Each structure stands twice: as C-alpha cells, then as structure tokens.
Amino acid sequence: MLREFQNFFNFSISISDVMVNLTLAFICGLLICYFYKTTYRGSGYTNSFLNSLVILVMITSVVIMVIGNNLARAFGLVGAMSIIRFRTAVKEPFDIIYIFYALAIGMAAGVGLFSIALGGTIIIGFVIVILTKTSLVSTSKEEYLLQFYFNGDNNGNDAPYIDSLRKYCKTYKLINIKSLGNGDGLELSYYVKLRNVIMNNEFIKNLKKIDGLNHVNLFFDEEYF
After folding, report:
1. d(CA 23, CA 17)
2. pLDDT reported for residue 35
C-alpha cells in the first residue's frame, strides 16, 4: 500500500522532456489557430477562442504527462477535474471540432509522439481546409435569404421592389410577411437565387434606393451583406 502511494508521486519524466513536449504542443496549437482562421466562415472569430485553443493543447499535454502510465493518477485527475463546470455555450458546431482537434493533438504531444502530433495537426488541418473551401462532400448552396422592411403599397407583382428582384435574381420566393408594430409597414422575407453572386452589393444598393424600403439584409450560411 505504501509503495503504491509512493508511486503516485513518482514522476519519471525529465524537465527536458517536459519542455520539448510543451514546445511541440505550443507549435501545434499555433498551427491549429492558423487553420481555424483559414476555415472559419462566421461573422468574426474572437481572439480569446484562438488563445484558448493554444492553451488547451498545452494543458492537455501537461495532463497526459502527469498521468503517464499510472492508473491511480489517472483516476485522481478525473475526480479533480470533474468539479469544473463549463457554462459557455459553443455556438458554432465547427468550434467543437476544433476543441477535440486541440485535445487530441495535446494528448499526442504529452506522450512524446512528435510525428503523430505534428503530422496529425498538418494533415487534419489541410483536410478541414479542403472540405470548407470546396464542395467535396457538401452540396453547393445557391439560395440566399433576403429580408427587408417596406412601408408602402404591397400589391404582389406590382410592388416597386419586384423589378429589382427580377433584374438580379434567377428565382425569388416569398416565404414570410410580418406586420410591424406600428401597423404601417411590413417585414418581408424571400428566398432568392442571384444571377451573379458578385453583384450582391449592387443588388442591395438598388433595393435601398426604393422609397419606403429599408433595413435590407442578405443572408447566406449565417453571413450577411
């Protein structure tokens, strides 16, 4: 029993090994951040999340070095870390992938598997880039969600904004009409397929010139123009 207790505090890893493993974890964390910035499609990433990814890789590496091949130490750390409660909601599903990405690379760096840690970081990162930049496994989307407020006569195909829709859109479909609080205006939502995506800014500027039409937003994959 005494020997097992002594083994709990017996660490065979050297200071040089710790420094090398943490340096590798830091480099891999920076690479993961680079891939995250390259593949992120939201309206804007936060620097705190990028910093957290780097620190997460290094902390995971430290945890794995502490555990080593000691089962008692592993159970002790599980019990100690179970008191941590994460209350921050992860809004982007891709962020969860990057968190597991960082954890896995941190584990590899912690046990000194340098080729797996560095190679895994680069290969997985390039795969993510390929999947996000191409339609290799996902279908390309052409539909945008157009929303705007209109104060005026809304007479279906005779409405003043219909000419702009016909000019810039291959197809357009009204999906929702909501009356505003004052009763004089409407919020309209359309699914549209643009004739030329490059001209989306010109499309919006053209709509904003129409009398009684404002708050124009064009959404696509959680981005808007």
Report:
1. 10
2. 92
Quote the tokens at residue 155: 């007479």
Tell me the CATH number for domain 143-224: 3.30.70.2690
Show me where the domains of the chain are located. Answer: 2-133, 143-224
Which of 177, 188, 225 lies closest to 210, judged by CA?
A: 188
Token pair recorded at residue 191: 């699914």
- Given 3-state DSSP classes, what are the helix, strand and coil percentages for the chain, each rounded to the nearest 5? 55, 15, 30
Residue 31 pLDDT > 90, yes or no?
Answer: yes
Is the model's pTM score more than 0.85? Answer: no
Total residue length of the chain: 225
Burial class of residue 148 (count of CB atoms within 10 Å of its CB; 0-12, 13-18, 19+): buried
Sign of the dihedral defined by the CA atoms of residues 26, 31, 37, 39, in that order: negative
Lowest mean pLDDT among 38-52, 74-88, 98-112, 142-156: 74-88
As a whole number, mean pLDDT of residues 190-203 equals: 84
Quote the pLDDT of residue 225: 45
Cα 198 vs. chain centroid, distance in angstroms?
A: 24
